[in-house]
Design goal:
By secondary structure, this protein is α/β, with parallel strands linked by helices. The chain is about 55% helix and about 10% strand. The model has no long low-confidence stretch (mean pLDDT about 95). The structure holds shikimate-3-phosphate.
């Protein structure tokens, strides 16, 4: 691996549920000696409730408001690695803020891979609305145009999270070298 530059801006991981934003984000932060934050966890801390409870008690719109505010606050901090919930970058305000203040990285994977990965946890309210494959295909359809606005696109299908991490580090290095 060629030399890894310490980023001047936060690195924001986006993509669908199950793609590995949190796991890869932690490893990326470790590799770059930056702090890591997970937007869902920060929303949960601020609300004193789990994401599922927020959806149940207040509805998705309230979750999205909280998510937008929490991400705005995190992007005011010195550079860090931030994993966003799958719907956050679709919000136009959040997308603009991320573009202005951070480097965004879209982790892409095929729906079959995502279905396998999301089956490991039952903490995602949107996946209870129908079978996970149907939900994820519909969300990908709706969201991919927004995701495609990310600065860096990385294939996170199939391979291990460490391969995804290597791809991100290479992409960051290439950007830095060509800047
Ligand atoms: C959501 C993704 C979840 C969480 C919430 C809604 C979405 O985060 O924010 O359940 O709309 O795709 P992960 O992508 O980290 O699972």
């Amino acid at each position: 691996m060629s030399c890894v530059h310490i980023p001047q801006k936060s690195l924001v991981l986006i993509g669908l549920m199950g793609v590995g934003k949190t796991t890869v984000g932690r490893r990326l932060a470790h590799a770059l000696k930056l702090d890591f934050r997970d937007a869902d966890e920060e929303v949960e801390k601020a609300a004193g409730r789990s994401v599922s409870e927020i959806f149940e008690d207040f509805g998705e719109a309230a979750f999205r408001d909280g998510e937008r505010k929490v991400i705005a606050r995190l992007l005011e901090e010195p550079p860090l690695v931030l994993a966003l919930g799958g719907g956050a970058f679709v919000d136009p305000e959040t997308r603009e803020r991320v573009k202005a203040r951070a480097t965004s990285i879209w982790l892409q994977a095929d729906v079959e891979t995502l279905v396998k990965r999301v089956s490991r946890r039952d903490t995602r309210p949107l996946l209870r609305e129908d079978d996970p494959e149907t939900v994820l295909r519909a969300l990908l359809d709706k969201r991919q145009a927004a995701y495609a606005e990310a600065d860096i696109h990385v294939d996170a299908s199939g391979g291990s999270h460490n391969l995804t991490l290597d791809s991100i580090l290479r992409a960051l290095d290439a950007r830095e070298t060509s800047a």
